[in-house]
Amino acid sequence: MKIQASGTQFFHFIKIRQNMKNSTVLQWLATALFILSCPLLFYAQNLLSNQSCESGSTPPGSNWVEVSGGWTCQAGSGVFPPAQDGSYLFFAGTSTPAELRQDVDVSGNATNIDSGNQEYVFSSYVRDYSGNDQSQVIVEYRKADGTVLSTYDSGPYAQSASWQNITDTRTAPVGTRVIRVRLISLRQAGSDNDGYHDNVSLTLGSLLPVELTYFGAKNMGQNTLLTWQTSSETNNAGFQIQHSTNGRDWKNLQFIDGRGTTDKEQDYSYRHLAPQAGINYYRLRQMDFDGAHKFSKTISISFHGNENGFSLLPNPVGNGGKLSVRFDHENEGTLNVFSFTGQRVYHRAVNEGQLDLNVRLPHLPQGIYMVEWLTGQGRFVEKLMIE
Questions:
Q1: Are 53 and 73 in contact (CB under 8 A)?
Q2: Residue 27: predicted pLDDT
Q3: Cα–Cα distance list, 178 to 107, 135, 142, 169, 207 (Å)
Q4: Considering the domain 65-207 in this protein, what is its CATH number?
């Protein structure tokens, strides 16, 4: 039985002697009652069925829906790699692209989800045959009507030497009622689609000790005003405010004491007196008295020096979301969006005299992108974070 207490995971094996005449039974019972009286978090079982394709069936079935391809539960032997877990793995057949999906109903946990207080932990293993074909996993957090609220996209993996573990832990967005897990295989060479999947799991994570209802940043001219609010707190030591200029490397600014344990709304604020020119990223590292911690979402705000020619709102922006671009100059030019690897993923002409532009971004993996505005006056660049 796997349990958690005070932020530490450990295992307990409890046995009770059947010989009631033996006085040691009282000692075992007392131990059991003491352990059960502690505040414990029991980790839920895998919410996905047939997670390692051990049914051996064609198609896999057990709530898996074959969207495209000819999926089978393939024994890991012979020309196929050994399974990561058990004896079978998910094999897509010959078609490409191939997709297998499973929907998990999480409406029974709506109370925790809608209070912004429930995490889910996803894990899966992917590999291929010879380093050519690719495996990809997408996890979608959906409303009851199918609207996608948040997406995890692993991107395509090509890994022939060993199984690659991909994981994602996130707080379910308010309104989530279904979590859809999509297994995708992409054939790049040969006749078989050898993007394999195995040991796919979705489990309940921890309940967050602090219910953060708001976290925002306001440009006060030469400094940033950060404000946040909690609706309840449990064992909350406080918040470490962190700052970054690239969304990756973080520095501590200030620790703000929490209110311990309370079911009342609490308001906090902090003024950052020295933001940098360009985009400034902020997040909260909420810390318990026992040392456990959780990170808030990342927010950002822009401070423009003379070298900047435009601003982006909102930033971060949701995957496939609408981006508003406001230019400081009425110059004709071109707007480009590049991934961090240098691949251009979006471009659009900007007409002379145009100061505002609304952009509908394509669906892109989460991460940091570079937005470039090329004009006759020069090249202007801003960072953009896609959630």
A1: yes
A2: 39
A3: 7, 23, 5, 16, 18
A4: 2.60.120.260
